Amino acid sequence: MINITYINKELKIASFDEQYPKELFLKYGVFFVEDDSSRYIVISNENIMESLAFLSHYEFSENIIHTDKYEEIYNELLDMKKADEKDDEIEDSMDDEEEILDFLKNSEDLLKSEESAPIIQFVNRMFYQSIKQDASDIHVEPSKDESEIRFRVNGVLHKYITIPKKAVNSIVNRIKVVSNLDISEKRIPQDGRTQITVAGKKLDIRVSTLPVHAGERIVMRVLMQADTIPTIEQLGLSDDIASELKKNVKSPHGIILVTGPTGSGKSTTLYSLLQMIKSTQTNIMTIEDPVEYNLSGISQTSVNVKAGLTFAKGLRSILRQDPDVVLIGEMRDKETSQIAIQASLTGHLVFSTLHTNDSASSITRLIDIGVENFLISSSLISVLAQRLVRKLCDDCKVETSLDLYEASLLKIPQETKVYKEVGCSKCNNSGFSGRIAVGELLQIDSKIKQMIQDNANDYEIKNYAITQKGMKTLKDRGIDLLVSGHTTSSEVIKLSMDNE
Questions:
Q1: pLDDT at residue 365 above 90?
Q2: pTM
Q3: Quick one: CA dihedral 428, 430, 432, 438, positive or negative?
């Protein structure tokens, strides 16, 4: 006689032993669960006779139970199964692009169910190639005739492939499906997120759609996983800046700002700093738009303007959660900035970003927003202005010389030994291998605090920091990288012109 026990407590899914065929067990609604002390076989009340008849073919030592939480646990198990299948699908569908493209061009009806596999394979291949080429963004760009997919690699867009017009909608729909977006809604922009595994690497992908004249344009930001966030040293920042930042993050309160344009690595730097201070004794909370990296041990909140959750409102709520450290995605308005500064003055260490050209201009930016001078001088610890420059591939770079124009722009001797890119198999023929962070760190000392209160302008503050404190500008740091053979003159010139 078989006894069936009713259990109403927290249970978690247990793994299947090799002798039990998982697919067959799930077909009959039978699976294994466990608590802290025991392992059980759980069955549903609705199909109890069918499940028991199936179980009669097996010998097992576990007790059979039923629970009100059957549906909840069963759905969780199915989601896990689908996720595994999705990972396998990505791994097993690395067919040649040309073969898939040939099918897409010649197929009469791409929407037939028996022909859906090539679309899936193509999208999977696209993700695979984005990882292989170390792309930060994927662009799907429809046009009147043939459309393009481009990858942004080391900050520069490169064409990946041209796709036939009739295949674009199917590719867009596939991306929307895996991102949990509404495929029937093509009139308004949508934002979504998905996570996939390609070649053993997990990808967290942020998806943005935009209606354009020729259809829907999609841009996907490929985000790093928490375990791949680099340290301050790995970012490429100079040793003296890394050393100063390590001291700054030990401050019990105050504000540390990272400033720069979109795509300059501000979020990565902030998370590198958070990694340094993360511990079981520290309550770290963030409010971002959106959350960039999922990091364990940190409470992260996404801005949701439609639901009324703004930076300011979210920050107020966070400050009632007893935080030690707060990260604010951006100090973009007066209300958020004032709350952040008040938080820093009441015993919280605050990290945030601004969009300014250099470190000194961030002070003027805060004043323009409406923050009082004395609050800025009382709360600010340091400001790191940051850019990213492409790093030369060590396997193929060759020595070259500066022309007269480059030497005059950079104000260095024309005979200075420098290198240029060539391209080889190791760098995908680009001549570059990754990017390096270039930083300009403004440390707020007592003199600069007084200058802020006296309404000193950007130039006066920056000039004092350079002449009296020895601060190196972004241009100076770029020239250091050029002379040491890490980047090219064109990269440093772009950096210099951006910082003028």
A1: yes
A2: 0.72
A3: negative
